[in-house]
Amino acid sequence: MTVVSSAESHRLSRRLPVAPVPLPGESLFSWVDHLAAVYEVDRTEIMQWLGLDPRAAHASRLARHTAELRLDAARSLHIATGLEPEAIHAMTLLGVVEVRRSRPYRLSDAPEAPEETWAFCPRCVEPPVRWPLWWYRWWAVMCPEHNCYTVSFCPDCGSPFSPAILRGDAPGHCPGFTSLADEQHRAPGRRRPKRKRCGRPLWEILTPTVADPMVRDTHQRLVRMAGEEPSSLDRQWYDDLRTLRILLNEPNPLYVQTFTGPDPALRERYTTQERGSMWDDTDTNPVVLRATGTGFLHPWRRTSPSTYGKERDPVTTGAELSVIASVLASDDMAAAAREAFRVLRPASLRDFDNDLPPYLYRASSQLHALISQAQTSDVLNRLHASPEPPRT
Ligand SMILES: [Zn+2]
Ligand SMILES: [Zn+2]
């Protein structure tokens, strides 16, 4: 429907008397919730005032706006708050767009899944909370202010977190449902009881201290690059970082031969075990650590007696970043990469669904030996034959 009612056009042109400016690096989601708190209204109402079209699922809609904001929504936001377009743009991951792309962030090269799992600092989410846009990024492994690892799932119930599921009526509390243990003890034939919300205060979640300077420096550099125009040196470093990360994880993992970092939390994640067997039926814990092909243990969540899913995990990502950043910091990257990784099975074009990530084309020549070992010839031919994709 294109007809705008007079009530709506009135609403869209209304200017809020006061609109607090966003904090540096703040996400749109956080700022809109902050405005709601300032005006003592709920999220639906503030979104209506701002012309952000709240509809039913207001949290996931706001998460979507934070990913990329349609031009008409950005305009009404500007009219309602007087905020400059640059400031609005800076609160979104992909910026202001004419037409929304359909879930572009599913690609591992694109900015990270805004409607999906998030990493946050427990100590920073005690209400009232305002949180930075970079919490959405895959590299959001630590909080520079509290020097601790971030968290992506609830240790009590295993629910992964995203702002899209944060409840307005219980701010800062885990919105997940309690574990399956109650389900399993249900007498046969009895009706399924209504599942209870977990409700754990997120700010009470304990998370290890970061003791690896490599993780700290890498994270600091990535935060800086997210906030300002990166230098060409930064860009090359980031291309190499993502290249090693994709080689390490997908589609066919590289095995990390040793892990000697100084951080006990990261060392605990390293194992020489083979890839773990799936599940121990007697374990009622909603989340367990299992070995993956990379040499790192990864938390998995059981979602029903027979299904389980990999959790996003900042600590494991921190361990991977530590290994990758050490290779990139070495004077002889080629030798450091040889020492760090073992190729178990090279990946083919089919493993990449025929679509190679653009940064792979731009990797430093020092990584070429590792790339040729870790990829089959069809991938290498493609890398040599095709022009380098433009940087976006
Ligand atoms: Zn913090
Ligand atoms: Zn929970």
TrEMBL record:
Residues covered by the TniQ domain: 17-148
InterPro entries per record: TniQ (IPR009492)
A single Pfam family, by name?
TniQ
Q: What is this protein called?
A: TniQ domain-containing protein
